[in-house]
Design goal:
Layout lengths: L1 E2 L12 H10 L5 H22 L4 E3 L7 H8 L16 H9 L12 E3 L6 E3 L2 E2 L11 H11 L4 E6 L1 H6 L2 E2 L10 H16 L4 E5 L9 H17 L4 E5 L9 H5 L5 E5 L7 H7 L5 E7 L9 H15 L4 E5 L18 H4 L5 H15 L5 H16 L6 H8 L12 H8 L19 H11 L5 H22 L16 H5 L2 E4 L6 E4 L2 E3 L3 E7 L6 H8 L8 E4 L1 H6 L9 H21 L4 E5 L11 H19 L7 E6 L8 H6 L4 E4 L9 H6 L5 E4 L12 H12 L20 H22 L1
Parallel strand pairs: 1-12, 2-6, 5-7, 6-8, 8-9, 9-10, 10-11, 11-12, 17-18, 18-19, 19-20, 20-21
Antiparallel strand pairs: 3-4, 13-16, 14-15
Helix pairs in contact: 1-2, 7-8, 11-13, 17-18, 22-23, 26-27
Bound molecules: glutamine and zinc ion.
Length: 757
């Protein structure tokens, strides 16, 4: 019985990759330096996994930016605007695709979107109708050589062709991307033949198997993988599904003509029985029994039971044990957490610990004596369940007392809008999403304060200066609704979590969000509540500096939930309602202190959407309720904003409207306002600011360009309900990009105002 992982965190125990990437981008370190770091990390990560008892090691899970971009790059899917011919692209072209490029010969980045329902973002491959494919990049082959040379048992890992095409987009006109299969497959085959000569296994990731697929898509799997199997000669092929059960794709998956099928038995436990009944005669089953999406210690008895039931039907040779999905989505190593409360820490497992867990599960199922580990596991799980730190009766009491009106604003939007005209904003008001550049000084001051190097008074005066600087700059730029700039926040969720009860924090629990960006999700281990005001003083200090309105800036309950590691001992909806009450307390305090505009960001609303249609309505219902619970305690004169990004909004338009925020700012510029299509079909009832400045790119957009986008927006959104803003917060940008870009944005608003008035 083999153990394996589908992928491992890329950044390194100390986020070495992030640091090296960023220094490379700043021109401070060279290409060799970067590739040396990358290589060291790969070597280290294989070593770690092997030590923990993983038999088959993944190769190809490493990436400089993103695995879907890697696949596009590998197969020569490079949009024309990057000016690369015959697939002769360099690593710098690769980074231009990922990040865009500023300056005269600047070029826009490729689109980025959420990887299924995770907080990881992938680069969306762009296919043209006449797309040609070539095997343009052999880094996967090189990495396989690297691993083989080290004496490892290698499983090459790459996205499967169906996931690759389905998760891409059409570059110019719409067409059926699956029509490209015929041209794509021979290039995959070429690669498979080369890989087969070097390694034992190839894993094709087809997480689309966890989505609702049409019959015409399902029926492509068999022939595609038959072709691959034929090309692989003696090398074994695994198809990996994850992030959910197989649902109506179960028969397709169970009859794949390959060597192994990996399934997610954490989210799709119900699949095991039917799979065992229907699994094709030669197919092995890889059981994803350890949660690759969360940080809790596994219930080993339960995992062993699942493996045992597979063993009785399939026998040892046809069972593999693995985490549910790539470990990319959990932090690196729990042992690095020196400060975590010991009791809570004992309930957790990170990537390294999860590798050990799968080893234990496999050993237990194989009849080896691991009783000591299993007994310890049992007693820890028991202790967690009964710990008084988990339960706060006051929270339950408050939730029980909620009434229908706690979920509604006092009046409908039209009436509120009338009253809010008193705020005196011009038509096409300009604003930003909240954060301003987080300079190295901001970061070091914040971390210095946190670890006691900097006194509170010095910290506060630094932050106040930064806020003052932000306010002055915004006034000079000419923005209508100002923000304080969020310098006190390391992360929009962590910051609130730190100020809530029921949360704890890791010091090194980083998870990749996109490119070099990592987040350190806080951990909800118990009932959530807010002990006292969080943002009120900062916002009021900012307000004291200007006659213009300054927005209060909060993170919404659904986003706090989605970007935290959530306790797995009660429904997510229940935890979300607790957070909503905590945010509501902050909203009430902001209003009481005189704040007139309050933004409650919900960038993660879409990403929490279950992958299967059948489960979506229920989620949307409680997500809407939680947002409204957090926001509707205010009077009609208080303007509630929300913000969303990285979404395909079409399917959740009704829910976005049901949040009943007075104003929503929403990402749009990266896809050149494709978003507006949704507004054409569904006329959004309240005010909306489709982003006109792509903040993911260092490029400074021209005023004319942004004016053009605004005019496009005016075709579907009436002027009195249109706002002007960037796509998202500006924390990752530099001041010398932000100031001119925002000046151009204000100029764009002014020129369009002149035209329409
Ligand atoms: N207010 C947050 C910011 O500006 C919003 C970030 C986000 O949407 N991800 O940074
Ligand atoms: Zn955003």
């Amino acid at each position: 019985m083999l153990t394996h992982t589908l992928g491992y965190p890329r950044m390194g125990s100390n986020r070495e990759l992030k640091k090296k990437l960023e220094s490379y981008w700043r021109g401070e370190s060279g290409r060799d330096d970067l590739s040396l770091t990358a290589r060291k990390l790969r070597v280290q990560h294989w070593e770690d996994q092997k030590k923990a008892g993983v038999d088959l090691l993944p190769v190809g899970d490493f990436s400089y930016y993103d695995h879907m971009l890697d696949n596009a790059f590998r197969f020569g899917v490079i949009p024309e605007r990057y000016g690369v011919h015959n697939g002769k692209a360099s690593i710098d072209d690769y980074f231009r695709m990922a990040r865009g490029e500023a300056g005269e010969n600047g070029v826009a980045a490729m689109e980025m979107t959420k990887w299924f329902d995770t907080n990881y973002h992938y680069i969306v491959p762009e296919f043209s109708r006449a797309q040609e494919f070539v095997l343009a990049d052999d880094s996967l082959l090189q990495q396989v050589d690297e691993a083989v040379l080290l004496g490892h048992r290698v499983k090459a890992v790459l996205p499967g062709p169906l996931t690759f095409l389905l998760l891409g987009k059409c570059a110019d006109q719409e067409f059926d991307r699956l029509d490209l299969l015929e041209r794509l497959l021979p290039v995959y085959v070429e690669l498979i033949e080369k890989l087969a000569a070097k390694c034992e296994w190839i894993q094709f990731d087809e997480p689309v198997l966890a989505l609702d697929l049409d019959e015409n898509v399902r029926k492509l799997f068999g022939p595609v993988y038959r072709t691959f199997k034929d090309a692989a000669a003696g090398c074994k092929i695994m198809v990996a599904s994850y992030f959910g059960g197989l649902g109506s794709n179960l028969e397709t998956a169970a009859s794949l003509p390959v060597d192994a099928l990996h399934v997610d038995l954490v989210r799709g436990a119900q699949d095991l029985e039917p799979l065992l009944a229907k699994l094709g005669g030669n197919l092995s089953l890889s059981l994803g029994v350890v949660d690759g999406r969360n940080i809790w210690r596994a219930d080993l008895d339960k995992a062993v039971a699942a493996v045992n039931s597979a063993l009785t039907v399939l026998g040892e040779d046809r069972v593999l044990v693995a985490p549910s999905c790539s470990l990319l989505h959990v932090p690196f190593d729990l042992e690095l957490e020196a400060k975590l409360d010991a009791e809570i820490k004992s309930w957790m497992a990170f990537a390294r610990q999860k590798c050990a867990e799968i080893r234990t599960v496999a050993d237990a199922a194989a009849g080896k004596d691991v009783e000591e580990v299993l007994t310890e596991n049992r007693s820890i799980l028991e202790a967690r369940k009964s710990s008084p730190r988990v339960n706060n009766p006051k929270v339950a009491e408050r939730l029980g007392a909620l009434k229908a009106e706690d979920y509604r604003r006092k009046s409908v939007y039209e009436q509120r809008a009338e009253i809010q005209r008193g705020l005196g904003f011009p038509v096409l008001p300009t604003t930003t999403i909240g954060s301003f550049p987080q300079t190295p000084e901001v970061r070091s001051t914040r971390s210095g304060f946190k670890n006691g190097r900097i006194e509170r008074a010095d910290y506060e005066s630094f932050m106040r200066n930064y806020i003052e600087d932000c306010i002055r700059k915004q006034e000079e730029i000419g923005l209508d609704v100002l923000v304080h700039g969020e310098p006190e926040r390391n992360d929009m969720v962590e910051y609130f979590g730190e100020n809530f009860d029921g949360y704890c924090f890791t010091s090194n629990g980083w998870v990749q969000s996109y490119g070099s960006r990592c987040v350190k999700p806080p951990v909800i281990f118990g009932d959530v509540s807010r002990p006292g005001p969080i943002t009120v003083d900062w916002i009021n200090y900012a307000r004291s500096l200007s006659d213009r309105e300054v927005k209060g800036m909060l993170t919404g309950p659904v986003t706090i939930l989605c970007w935290s590691f959530v306790r797995n001992d009660q429904p997510r909806s229940e935890t979300c309602r607790q957070i909503a009450l905590a945010v509501r307390d902050e909203v009430a305090d902001l209003e009481k202190s005189g704040v007139k505009v309050i933004q409650i960001d919900e960038p993660a609303l879409r990403e929490g959407l279950p992958l299967r249609k059948a489960e979506q309505a229920e989620y949307l219902k409680w997500a809407e309720e939680c947002f409204r619970l957090s926001s509707s305690c205010v009077g009609d004169a208080t303007q509630i904003h929300t913000h969303m990004c990285y979404c395909e909004f079409d399917e959740i338009m009704n829910s976005i409207a049901a949040l009943d925020a007075d104003v929503i700012s929403i990402e749009a510029s990266r896809s050149r306002m494709e978003l507006l299509g949704s507004f054409r079909q569904f006329s959004y009832p309240n005010e909306v600011g489709p982003g006109v400045y792509d903040i993911h790119s260092p490029a400074i957009p021209a005023a004319d360009d942004m004016a053009g986008l605004l005019e496009k927006a005016l075709e579907v959104i009436p002027a009195e309900r249109l706002w002007v803003n960037p796509d998202c917060g500006l924390k990752t940008r530099k001041w010398d990009e932000v100031v001119p870009a925002l000046k151009n944005m204000v100029q764009a608003a002014e020129s369009v105002r002149r035209k329409i008035q």
